[in-house]
Amino acid sequence: NAGVMQNPRHLVRRRGQEARLRCSPMKGHSHVYWYRQLPEEGLKFMVYLQKENIIDESGMPKERFSAEFPKEGPSILRIQQVVRGDSAAYFCASSLQGRDDNEQFFGPGTRLTVL
Amino acid sequence: RKEVEQDPGPFNVPEGATVAFNCTYSNSASQSFFWYRQDCRKEPKLLMSVYSSGNEDGRFTAQLNRASQYISLLIRDSKLSDSATYLCVVKPSNTGKLIFGQGTTLQVKP
């Protein structure tokens, strides 16, 4: 049973370009979470999605960032007009349900570098 | 004030030592508590959940004090393979998000 998959693992963009990060949850999981880890910092929650719905986007920057989890296919985190401060590791996690006692399993992350 | 605070360390200990990490959280509505482990440039992995009654998993013991909003992790008989960053994590009730501390780095030396 494959774990959470993320691609690409490394992504390099120039300032002003768009970055698209993909996340395929574990089989059977319908809850997806995105976290960002800036260099030398802890992980920060960005957004929580369930199939076709955004449940909580309280951690998303107001501009340039968006996320979706369509009925078919992976979850996508999109960053438009990237800036150097967007350089970070972006981790996706999934869980079977959204209840408190449900473990979130993390993918290997996408490391975004903005030149 | 950060929602979850940890001493970043690093803690440098010899093999076989006992080491303790502490963590405090600010949101009294927090419902669930965890310790995750993160190896360099890898994804976090769940080490153990933390319960009010305290719980043990082999060489690892976790404690929660809700009144003091304080969580601890004790590692006995440290191994070289325990070298990693340990993340204190809380989950407020009725929310899906995990709130991570900055992490405490442990380096076990031979």
Task: Describe the structure in your own words.
The complex is a heterodimer of chains A (115) and B (110). Chain A has 115 residues and is an all-beta fold. Chain A has no helices and 11 strands. Chain A has strands at 5-7, 10-13, 19-24, 31-37, 43-50, 53-56, 65-68, 75-79, 88-95, 105-106, 110-114. In chain A, strands 2, 4, 5, 6, 9, 10 and 11 form a 7-stranded mixed beta sheet that branches. In chain A, strands 1-3-8-7 form a 4-stranded antiparallel beta sheet, with no helix packed on it. In chain A, a hairpin with a 5-residue loop joins strand 4 and strand 5. Chain B is an all-beta fold. In chain B, 0% of the residues lie in helices and 55% in strands. In chain B, the strands form 2 sheets. In chain B, strands 2, 4, 5, 9, 10 and 11 form a 6-stranded mixed beta sheet that branches. In chain B, strands 1-3-8-7-6 form a 5-stranded antiparallel beta sheet, with no helix packed on it. In chain B, a hairpin with a 2-residue loop joins strand 6 and strand 7 (60-65). The N and C termini of chain B lie far apart (37 Å). The relative contact order of chain B is 0.35. The mean pLDDT of chain B is 92. The interface between A and B is medium-sized, with 27 and 22 residues.
